[in-house]
Amino acid sequence: MDEISDYDFKEFVKTVQDLALRAYPNPGRADCPGSQVIHEVASLSRPAAHPVFQSHIVRCSPCIQDVLAERTRIQSQRKNRRRALLAIAAGVCLIALISLLLLRLHSGAPLRDEIARAVDVPEIPLDLRPYSPTRSASPEKNKPSLTLPSKRVRLKIYLALGSPEGIYEIQVLTNKLKALRSQQATAVVASDGTVSIPVDIDLAGLPTGTYVLALRPAHDNEEWQICRLVLKRAP
Questions:
Q1: Over 70: is that where the pLDDT of 193 sits?
Q2: What domain range includes position 2?
Q3: Whole-model pTM above 0.85?
């Protein structure tokens, strides 16, 4: 037996529906229910369950047509209502966002700084591969200093080949080793074996001058990698 296609099935349903709309003529509309009952039947998820559908509508082509028309109108109304509710919800979210921004602005919160942080900050590479981990608390004097602007920066810190992945402790200290900035970030290994740590550090507010940058894997007894850091005035 040939398989019935979706098109053939839809055509069959349409034919049966057309026959139903013509098979039971009732030009005088004898015993037809009022518009309220037609609406009740059309509103049901299963209209055939309504007793009036069983007793009259199924045998009256004009009523069948009325139920189909009313059901189409109800479905269209529900779609429009859903669209309206979605539009209202979107408007409420927008008003809430604007209210929050205005509240922060009037409360003196650093709104401009928050917006600036949201935009893309240029990434600055820091190559620590010439430096080696050391148990000394002083940076290696024969190595060049690293230079950064005194502002919020996004760094990509390159570590020596073979450095472990995972979480690292990163600190910016004074020359007397007082911690001024301290945070953690994750080291990742690229396909070529390069090990790097992407991290954002807020250096704004620190005076220009010489500092110490220290980092190590966040495990007990791991050695610090220490180098001299010079902060310059931000452009």
A1: yes
A2: 1-119
A3: no
